[in-house]
Amino acid sequence: MGTDNSPEWLTRVQFAAALQVHPRTVSRWIAADPEMRVQRLGPTGHRVRVRVHRSELERRRSGMSPIGDTTATA
């Protein structure tokens, strides 16, 4: 692990904030991309807590977004 204090697994809200998108956008990415590194915590059902691996930040930034992604790339 690196020398920074950043967590390895981010909440959906933390992940969204890092990429400047809405948390619902992250939920759509998770649903559309089976290759996305996520951990589902707690019981299954409508409200599942999810953690997204920090490596997915770079993957999103490098343009490997699912089809239909309309986020700005500026």
User: Would you count the extended β strands for me?
Assistant: 3
Q: What is the ordering of alpha helices and beta strands?
A: EHHEEH
Strand order in the sheet with the most strands: 1-3-2
The total count of helices amounts to: 3
Assign an overall shape. Answer: globular
Radius of gyration: 12 Å
Distance between the termini: 29 Å
- Which oligomeric form is depicted? single chain
Strand content: 15-25%
Runs in which pLDDT lies below 50 for 5 or more consecutive residues are none
Structural class: alpha+beta
Mean pLDDT: 82
The major β-sheet equals: 3 strands, antiparallel
Helical percentage: 25-40%
What does this structure look like?
This protein is α+β, with helices and mostly antiparallel strands. The protein is built from three helices and three strands. Strands 1-3-2 form a three-stranded antiparallel β-sheet. The chain is globular. It starts with 8 loop residues before the first strand and ends in a 13-residue tail after the last helix.
